[in-house]
Predict the structure.
Amino acid sequence: MKTIYPRSVKHIRVSEPAEEQGCHEQSSHEPHPNFNERHPNSTEQHPNFNERHPEFNEGREGTRHSLKPSTGSGARIYRKGRGAQSDIHNPFEKNRYVDWEIDLPKDQSERKTQYIEVFPKSIVNKVESPDVPSDYSINPYQGCEHGCIYCYARNSHTFWGYNMGLDFESRILYKSNAPELLEKKLQSKNWVANPIMLSGNTDPYQPLEYKLKITRKLLEVFLEYKHPVSIITKNSMILRDLDILKELNKHRLVSVAVSITTLNEKLRQVLEPKTASGHARIRTVKALAANHIPVSVMMAPIIPSLNSQEIIPLVKAAAEAGARNVQPIIARLNGQLLDIFEDWAYLNFPERAKKILKQIAEAHGGQANDSRFGKRMRGEGQFVEHIHQQFKLARRLYLKPHEKFEHNCSSFTGQSSHQLSLFTERQIA
Ligand code: SF4
């Protein structure tokens, strides 16, 4: 693995964005804390801008519709294996991408993925969102090669000086020092055991994990300290770590949520191109359940007129595989996600795109980029109620009742647990 330093990443102190929430959840839309340091007069181009787009104009003002297919000189080349079909300007950068105006030759339309090592000073993030059922999260990777077009985490890539279009899925930041940082945190006197979500923002089992094993090493640390962890993924690679998961499970320290959007492989290939297939994820649920590891399924997100008709069969398949529950999240398009999703929808489903976009907005009181806590993931309105009714029915038909799972926080062996036991002993004495 070659460590590539974009021109300025090497010189900045890399720290976590102020707020990162949920693999399928939104981050607050603030610039990276070091953005000004990195871009003192806000006119610096993206480090790879010239290399990638020598022919682009500077300073052109983009519009919300700047990514719509060109009606000009020729057809665009569809980038197979990518969700986003274009770059989009980072709102914190002055320069903007305008590739809707030109026809790229095939070789320029392909974007090789770059892996970039970063060195954060801390790795455990406090989750501020009341919509996310964890207080803490860890993100061993930023950006996600899975490339789901609807991914809410895309916005967070702008913190790091990249764009949330193609950059998000082709400029992957990785944190090799994450296991050491986690260990340091768990050893700290003030840390009290509390389930940590892996990961809060992007998928911990994205393709690079196969080689780097950062997530696996994190799980080893959790096991060593008998600390609870919850995992969310769209990749069956999690089964590689079944040996550790089984050990964690002996102490009631782990739960898994597998996110499954569709069982239609043709749709999956364009919607979330580098994830495992829906059926592979169902098999993953089955393997985890067969090993008594508490596993649930998230149908995240439900996109009207795309996968909304799959609720009943998907809940049935998940229940038969042994999922304890199936939870829906209604699609919303926060920040610039609306632009890249709209572009993708018109390219892939020109006849339905308008309807899909309209229904997403209607599911959020007319605002596709709904950011209201409590409402943004559940949605509202007639269509959404119909979806929740279907879930209710499907759960009643297929899901077996399960005892509520709670992580065990009492076996933690870190510093604070020693302090606590010393304190308790003193009290008893
Ligand atoms: S798996 Fe998909 S939804 Fe989850 S972080 Fe990666 S791109 Fe986003």
